[in-house]
Amino acid sequence: MHAAPGGLLVAVSATFKRDLTLMLRRRGEVLNPLVFFALVITLFPIGISPDPELLASIAPGLLWVAALLAALLSLDSLFRGDYDDGSLEQLLLAPHPLAALGLAKVAVHWLLTGLPLALMAPVLGIMLALPAGSYAVLALSLAVGTASLSLIGAIGAALTVGLARGGVLLSLLVLPLYIPVLIFGAGAVQAAILGDGIAPHLAILGALFTVSLMLAPWAIAASLRISING
Amino acid sequence: MTGGKGPFRVEFDPKLMRLERPLSLCLQARKLACERDDRWLFEGLDLDIRSGEIVRIEGPNGSGKTTLLKILSGQLSDYSGELYWNDAPMRQVREHFLANLLYLGHAPGVKTGLSPLENLAWYQALSGDKGSETQREKALAAVGLTGFEDVPAGQLSAGQQRRVALARLTLTQRALWVLDEPFTAIDRDGVDALEKQLIAHAQAGGCVLVTTHHELTASSVLRRVQLG
């Protein structure tokens, strides 16, 4: 007694398309984390020192921390709108696995937050005198890393969606889980600068992403059900 | 919003069988009890909702009408008692139950950033069927929103937004309608049409579970359940 198998694909792609359309119509919300990222990185050379050697040594960490915070900043609104206007109830009552529908929403979040951050990072890296040769690794590590960040963060966003001011709690819940991604993400860029092997770092980032991809959708679905039970 | 509906089909795997004749449906609650803030909203509630019925849940504000609807539609798990769908425990047949359920909550679930057509397209796809633009335009015409198809829903009035949500009743063929205050913000003509639609749905073999402060016309298909 299952719905037609093609039905799930229709529902998931429609949810993906709907969220994408909604976000593209609210450009401000999409640009917000990118502007935050650019501002923070611009301020560091001014605040610390314009010395290229000093900046280059801290650049990987700075870029990664700023991107991580920018991604975190945008997470609170992931399920908030749906919760407020009642469409989250409808999502829960769809005759399809909530995990798959939630994953579609997370995919949109990454596409409009994580991916642009990853593409922007090399440009900001120039400002921090990031040594040549590490730009590709920076973008790649951020692209894979932010996908994990979106997945893990969505669990926190789902848990706190029913709370009036869940933003702080969301950060507290999610930040400890972000730390491994940060360590290996920044580590990959550092290794690229020093000329060490980057493969182990990227492999662990990939592994973290795979584990998140397997487990997070179920956790997101369970969290949403808890939130709706409020 | 005119009724003219065909017989209701219960969604089994279409490859296995296609039921053209209305099938008797039944949602049962046994010894349902729910506690909120150290207060029993209801206790020992037995409820049978069958095909061909409109069940109206009545009670003063805060008597737990919305909570009951949320429990019966499978959203809340914070209750004691048992739910049965077609004589099978809800846990086992949840997916089949959801495929037959149309729930319309207190919030209309209409995205203000999308046009009515886009809103309906998502709802239709959510049930696994892409549908067509003509179907959706027809459904919008049935709720009196011709000419507003491509206007962002945020620019529509509260009543019009509610009508977008109500267009789902015409658009998707579901047997069990669970409607929480569907008459909110609807004008008098709309109320009449919606009432007719509910009766037509029950007469065609569907069932309707509704809370409303609006007085429904007494009809042979109407049954009342008092809470609180």
From TrEMBL, chain A:
Keyword presence, Cell division: no
Topology with respect to the bilayer: Multi-pass membrane protein
Keyword ATP-binding: no
Keywords of the record: Cell inner membrane, Cell membrane, Cytochrome c-type biogenesis, Membrane, Transmembrane, Transmembrane helix, Transport
Residue spans crossing the bilayer: 30-48, 54-75, 110-130, 136-161, 168-193, 199-224
Location in the cell: Cell inner membrane
The protein's name: Heme exporter protein B
Species, as recorded: Vreelandella zhaodongensis
Gene transcribed to yield this protein: ccmB
